Amino acid sequence: MLKEIRIHGRGGQGAVTAAQLFAHAAFLEGKWVQAFPYFGAERRGAPVKAFARISDEPILVHSQIYNPSHVIILSPSLMQVVNVTEGLKKDGLVLINTTKKPEETDLTDWRIATVDATGIAIQLGLLVAGFPVVNTAIVGAFAKATGEVKLESFLETIRQKWSGSAGEKNAKAAEIAYERLVKGW
Amino acid sequence: MAQTVIDTANHIAAYAAKAARVQVIAAYPITPQTSIVERIAELVESGEFDAEYIRVESEHSAMAACIGAAAAGARTFTATAAHGLVLMHEPMHWASGSRLPIVMPVANRALGPGWNIWADSTDSMSQRDTGWIQFYCADNQEVFDTIIQAYKLCENERILLPAMVCLEAFILTHTYMPVKIPDQEKIDDFLPHYKPNWILDVSNPLSHGNILSPEWYMEFRYMMQESMENAKQLIPEIDKEYSKHFGFEHGGLVDKYKCDDADLILLTVGTIGSEAKVAVDNLRREGLKIGSARIRVFRPFPKEEIRKLAENAQMFAVIDRGISFGMEGFIAEETKASLCSQNDRPLIAGFIAGLGGRDVTFKTIEKIAKKSAEWMQRGRIEKETVWVDLKE
Question: Measured between alpha carbons, how far is B108 from B39 in angstroms, rounded to an integer?
Fold first, then answer.
């Protein structure tokens, strides 16, 4: 079974690291994994994309993801400038970092879930150069929304990646987002 | 114990240099190679990697420093891409002519202008006549394994030539995949300390790069050509030996997939060869007898393997992510040259695809294969070179 995840974010929000967290966490669960960014002219605040593939078999595909199983939107303002659901599979999940409830978003065709990852990042002081970094919160929310990667795997990945209090704070962000996720189905 | 890391192919290349116990690194940063030498710099700085790291002012100087270090007997490493590589062109001839086993990852990137940092093989393939061995990788594991294998090959007395290990910009350089890194002890057994037969040594002076008269120049060039021929035998042997030690085998000179009964064979390089396996499986389900042959080594060119593949195939569809202007794709050219002396030749069509990083998906490859199958049925090709998905 191949799961393909596309992450839309703005430069500085941690989209690329979020894709890496998917790869590491799924690898801990015995999967084959791949994570990669789309490199354009990155700068802070510009729209960026990152991708993750999770599979039961070795991954031979290296091209970009055009028909994702799920999409994750780190900044809701992107929905006005990027077609974030382009190619998304019918039973796919749209996970949005927003204070809105799923029914308050403009999307209807997919499974919609929301979480205020920015609020969690600010609450925990997860800031880089003044920007809230929302990747660790959002992966926790994803674990709750799909169960396709377990929260425990993300927590272990986060603690391996960042040692000491940074690791604990980021793990906390994932746990809080897991609790606060709002499912629209 | 062997350890699995999930990291980008660039970082994996840095770990391979460390695992190979490289002694000297001289490098200049260039996107998308930079994170190779950046990670090495971090490892050397922290003391984890015991090597001399020489900072230089250009790629030309990087290669010059590598030549000096290798001539003094050190296991030597550098990395580059695109414009950095073509700036090295002149000293690259020096490295091969001096028979120095330098290993250099090349992050295959398009040449400007127009400015483009994405995947394209024209940078390294345009260096084909420099006397360097050229490997092309299809995933992160192969990058690690090939760097270790390249030192084993290049330092062999029957070779003594430098090698490039090519990995496509971003598609590999910045992509995270799991890689098994074997135990250091086992790598040390496989790749012992480099012991050159002669070195630049102040206590035992000798001339290096002296004038070579018409009386002898040809003989030295003949020996280089002989070494390239030897490499065709040694590369598969080393790949097999490596797999016996560490479990990974990458196909020797050509990574063949379902070619045995194939009427149509896709000839590819790099990650397009990996993606082609997906296309092959999909098209076989539709009843097409198709296979994929990924050219892993471009220099020496595996012409004997190409001839063997041609024996049973009716058609070759050659996909090039590079172009020799005024002729055609590099692999298409070499494939035709390899077969021109044979009596029964398959039809050959060249496809230019993915220049400057345009995505080549398995669907693109399926489209190429279907067009080729149509021509194969008809017994003739309509176009020698097709530019895939060209906006006209």
Answer: 19
